[in-house]
Specification:
CATH class of the largest domain: Alpha Beta
Low-confidence stretches: 3-27
Largest sheet: 7 strands, mixed
Distance between the termini: 42 Å
Structural class: alpha/beta
Strand order of the largest sheet: 15-14-8-7-16-17-18
Number of domains: 3
Helix content: 25-40%
C-alpha cells in the first residue's frame, strides 16, 4: 500500500521535511524575486515574493497556506533515484523504468500533476505503451464535465467575476478551502464596471459566513443563508429553483433570494464540486447549472465552477489537444478511447501491473493500494511509506524549471519561470529519456539487421 499516514501525522511530516532541510544559519547572498507566479491551486496568483539564498528558497508570507508551505524548498537535495529504497543513479533508474513500462501488460499513468509539457510527454508515453491516463484530482473535474456533456452550461471567468459581478452566490462549502486567496484576489477588489463598486456575497448551504470572508471586514457586504436543519445542498438548490419559478410562498427566504438574483446586474454562481459531499455530487452541479439558466433569462448570470489544483485544467486541455477526448482516456487498443468510469485512476489501479505516478507540484500523495509495481516521479521531499518499486526525483514547475499551467477557469495559460537550480530534471525530460530507452532496443535490432 502506498499513501498518506493519518492526516495530522502526514501534514506534520510534510512541514518538517520542507522546513528542517533548510539550514537555520546564514543563507549567504540573498536575492528577492517579486511578483512570482504561484502554480499550485489554480488561481494563478502572480504577486508572490520569494527570497532565494544558497540554502534554498522561501516565500514571504502571503496569507495562503499552500504558497507559504510549497514555495519553501531547500538546496541541495538528493538527486539520485531509489529502487525499493536503495539509491541508484538516474541513468539506471531511467533504464529500470523503461524495462518495467515496456514489459507491462496493463500500464497506468496517473497523478499527472505536471506542467503542460510534462503532460504532453506523458500522453506520448501512454500511446507508446498502451497506457491509461488520469489526473489525481479529476473527480472534481468530472463532476462538472458530466453536467456539461448532458446539459451544457454558461460559465464565466475570474476576470469577469472581479470586474463586472455585483452579486456572488456561493453554493456549498467555502471554495477558499481549496483556493485560499479567492476572495482577496478576485472578489474584494472594487469592480471596474459596477456603479458604486458594490458587491454582495450570499452563501447557500455550508457555513453562512466563513472566516475567510469575515476577514475582509466591511469592504463587501456578506449575507448568510443556511437551510433548515437536516436539509442538504441538493434540497436548498431545489427550493431556490422553485422560488425562481414563482412557486414558493412570499415569506419563504428563497423568494427573497430569487428576487435579489433577478435584480442583479451580473450574478455569478460559484461552486467547488470537489468539496461536495454525498453520493451524487454531479446532480448538485446540474441543479446549479439549471438555476443559472433560469436567472440568465431575465438578467446576466453565469456559473463559476472552481477546480484545477496541480494543473488539472492544463492536463485536461492537453489531453483534448492530443486525443480529442478529456482525461480518463486509454490507449490499450492502439487508438484513444475515453470512458470516465472505466478509466478513472482509482478503478484502473485494480488491474494495473505497472503504475507511473506523476506528482511534480507537491510532496504529498493520496492514499491508494495496488497489486502492481509503482514508478514515482515526484519532488525529492516526497515521503512515501512504504517505498515504491522505483522513485525518480523531478523538479517542480515554477521552482526548478519553467513551465506552463492553466488557471482554474480554463481560459488563461500562465508561464512560470524557474527560481532555483537544484539539479532536478523536469517530468518532460525524464519521460523523454524513458521514451528514448524504450526505443533503443528496436534501434539496436535494426542496426544488427534483425
Amino acid at each position: 500500500m502506498l499513501g498518506r499516514l493519518p492526516t495530522k501525522i502526514a501534514r506534520a511530516i510534510e512541514l518538517f521535511t520542507l522546513t528542517s532541510l533548510l539550514p537555520s544559519g546564514d543563507w549567504g547572498a540573498m536575492t528577492f524575486h517579486p511578483d512570482t507566479l504561484c502554480p499550485f491551486c489554480g488561481l494563478g496568483c502572480g504577486d508572490i515574493g520569494i527570497d532565494r539564498g544558497e540554502a534554498g528558497i522561501s516565500a514571504r508570507p502571503t496569507g495562503c497556506p499552500q504558497a507559504d508551505r510549497l514555495f519553501h524548498r531547500s538546496a541541495p537535495v538528493p538527486t539520485d533515484g531509489r529502487m525499493g529504497g536503495t539509491p541508484l543513479s538516474i541513468d539506471d533508474a531511467i533504464a529500470k523504468a523503461a524495462q518495467l513500462l515496456g514489459a507491462s501488460r496493463a500500464p497506468l499513468i496517473a497523478g499527472l500533476a505536471a506542467d503542460v509539457n510534462g503532460v504532453l510527454a506523458a500522453l506520448t508515453l501512454a500511446e507508446r505503451i498502451g497506457a491509461t491516463v488520469d489526473h489525481e484530482r479529476s473527480d472534481a473535474l468530472f463532476r462538472n464535465l458530466a453536467v456539461l456533456r448532458r446539459f451544457g452550461w454558461s460559465v464565466t471567468t475570474l476576470a469577469e467575476l472581479r470586474n463586472r459581478c455585483d452579486l456572488v452566490l456561493v453554493a456549498g462549502p467555502d471554495p477558499a478551502a481549496a483556493f485560499p486567496r479567492l476572495w482577496e484576489r478576485w472578489v474584494a477588489p472594487e469592480p471596474a464596471f459596477v456603479p458604486g463598486g458594490a458587491r454582495s456575497i450570499i452563501f447557500l448551504g455550508g457555513d453562512p459566513l466563513p472566516e475567510t470572508v469575515q476577514c475582509l471586514g466591511g469592504r463587501i457586504e456578506t449575507s448568510g443563508l443556511s437551510g433548515e436543519a437536516g436539509q442538504d445542498l441538493t434540497t436548498l438548490v431545489g427550493r431556490l429553483r422553485t422560488a425562481l419559478a414563482g412557486r414558493a410562498a412570499q415569506n419563504e427566504p428563497m423568494t427573497a433570494l430569487a428576487a435579489r438574483l433577478r435584480a442583479a446586474r451580473y450574478a455569478v454562481v460559484a461552486w467547488a464540486a470537489g468539496l461536495f459531499d454525498g453520493p451524487q455530487p454531479d446532480m448538485i452541479v446540474e441543479g446549479l447549472v439549471r438555476l443559472v439558466r433560469s436567472v440568465d433569462g431575465t438578467t446576466r448570470c453565469a456559473g463559476l465552477p472552481l477546480a484545477g489544483a496541480d494543473n488539472l485544467i492544463g492536463a485536461n486541455q492537453a489531453c483534448g489537444w492530443r486525443t480529442g477526448f478529456p482525461l480518463r482516456t486509454g490507449f490499450e487498443g492502439g487508438a484513444p478511447l475515453h470512458d470516465p468510469e472505466r478509466f478513472a485512476w482509482q478503478t484502473r489501479l485494480r488491474d494495473a501491473d505497472v503504475t507511473l505516478w506523476i506528482s511534480a507540484f507537491r510532496p504529498a500523495l493520496p492514499s491508494f493500494t495496488t497489486g502492481g509495481s509503482v514508478i514515482m516521479l515526484a519532488p525529492p521531499e516526497m515521503t512515501v511509506m512504504p517505498e515504491p518499486a522505483l522513485f525518480i526525483p523531478v523538479g517542480t514547475p515554477g521552482i526548478d524549471h519553467a513551465g506552463d499551467v492553466f488557471r482554474t477557469d480554463g481560459v488563461v495559460a500562465l508561464h512560470a519561470d524557474a527560481l532555483i537550480d537544484r539539479g532536478l530534471a523536469s517530468v518532460a525530460d525524464v519521460i523523454g529519456r524513458i521514451l528514448a530507452a524504450l526505443d533503443r532496443p528496436t534501434a539496436d535490432k535494426e542496426a544488427a539487421g534483425c
